[in-house]
Amino acid sequence: MRGEFVDLDGVRLYCYAFGQRGTGHPIVLVHGSFTSSHLWQDVLPRLPKGHRVLVLDLLGHGRSDPPGSAAMTVAAHAERLEQLLDIMGVQQVMLVGHGMGAAVAARVAHEHPERIAQLMLVNPTLLAARADEALLNRKVRRVASLVWLWQRIAPSWVASALHAALLPCFAHRDVGARSLDVYLMPFRQRDGRDAACAQLRALGQSRGDTVAALAPGALRCPTALVLGEHDPFLNAARSERLVEWLRTATGNTVGVHTLPGVAHVAPEEAPDRLGTLVGELIAR
Q1: Which of 82, 78, 57, 70 is nearest to 4 (CA)?
Q2: Whole-angstrom Cα distance, residue 228 to residue 232?
Q3: How many CB atoms lie within 10 A of CB 148?
Q4: Integer Cα distance of 14 and 61 in angstroms
Q5: Is residue 217 left, alpha or beta, with left meaning phi > 0 and alpha meaning psi from -120 to 50?
Q6: I want to staple 75 with a disulfide (CB 3.0 to 4.6 A). Which of 60, 88, 188, 209 is the partner?
Q7: What gap in Å lies between CA 279 and CA 169, rounded to an integer?
Q8: d(CA 63, CA 117)
């Protein structure tokens, strides 16, 4: 495993490579908002052998730089991911995205279908939004509505508010509390607070970015949708709408998988099953 910082137009993204080069396409793992590359640690050893795996921290998350004036929308994250793949010399990949990272992955697949071999969307959030929906979770929506306040108070308060809002994303709250302590550590600094506020604002600004990625015929590669049975971001209506949109976007070839007993953070709660599904999608 080798980690490095990559310069992209004045900001640095942290990424690391796992596994060994083989005959298969590289696998790129994209985390969602307010987590980090740490999300995938239990999935990595369960992925199919013979693939180089590239894992990154999105801007403003994990070890990557705070955003400063850089945009944090889905479209902006997707553009930086495309630049990263170019710099790393990766031509065609399997993309696996979780939460907001699934919207980022879908955006890249829509904009550059020639370089995506397979696409896996794990518990997508923004992709399930209609144009009139801002954020999909009541507690997160409440936190986002107070961005004007969070920017003026101690960073620890912002991290604590996010901790409380995101805890229902875990089926097991004690495990979730420990994981959130890790994910939210960067947001307990002043730059981190500002990054969290920028990401909260950008979630609402990203609606058009993600709906556009689900136009008819937009996704041309083998695609899988993985849903946690108890995901608080995806109620039954949103899940049904998401499945229908993906069937339209893929020409009715999307594979849909529901993980029993899993909430939102499937890479932590079902790493074995997720690794198996990645292997099955690659074999399609």
Answers
A1: 57
A2: 9
A3: 9
A4: 9
A5: left
A6: 209
A7: 25
A8: 28
pTM, full prediction: 0.94
CA–CA dist 267, 96 (Å, integer): 11
Rounded Cα distance, 98 and 145, in Å: 24
pLDDT digits 0-9 by tens, 136-155: 566 677 777 778 788 889 99
Band (132; pLDDT cuts 50, 70, 90): very low
- How many angstroms separate the CA atoms of 108 and 119, rounded? 10
In 3D space, the residue among 179, 199, 169, 182 whose CA is nearest the CA of residue 264 turns out to be 169
The alpha helices in the chain, defined as continuous H runs, are 74-87, 100-111, 138-145, 147-150, 155-166, 173-183, 190-205, 207-212, 236-250, 266-269, 271-282
From the DSSP assignment, how many helices (H) and strands (E) are in the chain?
11, 8
For residues 192 and 155, is the Cβ–Cβ distance under 8 A? yes
Kindly tell me the burial class for residue 114, based on how many C-beta atoms sit within 10 Å of its own C-beta (0-12, 13-18, 19 or more): exposed
DSSP letter string, 175-229: HHHHHHHHHTGGGGSHHHHHHHHHHHHHHHHTHHHHHHTTSTT---S-EEEEEET
Read off the pLDDT of residues 212-230 as tens digits, 9 standing for 90 and up: 667 788 888 999 999 999 9
Side-chain-facing half-sphere of 203: CA atoms under 13 Å: 28
Q: Fill in the amino acid letter for 173.
A: R
